[in-house]
């Protein structure tokens, strides 16, 4: 029954709020709902700018682009250095500083294969990024429209409560004046309570 469901719902709310079961919860007369003062496009741009998973994948795609250019088909120059200190011989120190030049003269096609592999990995990462962007936009759209619908439901409910309040007030006056039966008066009170 609806009455039982209502009582169970109140018990669950009290349990979730971690208050005593005899604690009295009162519904407010009017619920103030802030208006959603932003556009869907603004929400899209904020999502694309701030989602960590999107930002991380974008950086991965950019990094993979650099890896393609750095395949083993071009010469490379590296600066290297090291320093060793020996505890048992304080005067014994080793150090090395130098430049290392690598020129791939013949690698059996390994360098070109690596570049090809890097391009394929980058394309896959770009596809994953597009899927993630599409999924994010869908998720944000769903949430945005859900908030808009909830806002409309609250406004509609508030109008219904106001109508029921007025009907109850009129029934009370009519009952006092003898123009409305007790059953109609009780029905108006019940309708007001349900509307709340």
What's the short version?
The chain is mainly alpha-helical.
Question: Can you offer a commentary on this structure?
Answer:
With 196 residues, the chain is mainly α. It is 65% helix and 10% strand. A hairpin with a 7-residue loop joins β1 and β2.
Number of helices: 5
**Could you state the order of secondary-structure elements as H and E?**
HHHEEHH
Low-pLDDT regions: none
Which strand-content bin applies to the residues? 5-15%
Largest sheet: 2 strands, antiparallel
What percent of the residues sit in helical stretches (DSSP H or I)?
55-70%
Helix and strand topology:
Elements: H1 2-17, H2 40-50, H3 52-69, E1 76-85, E2 93-102, H4 110-177, H5 182-195
Antiparallel strand pairs: 1-2
Characteristic key phrases:
two-stranded antiparallel ribbon; single chain; 5 helices
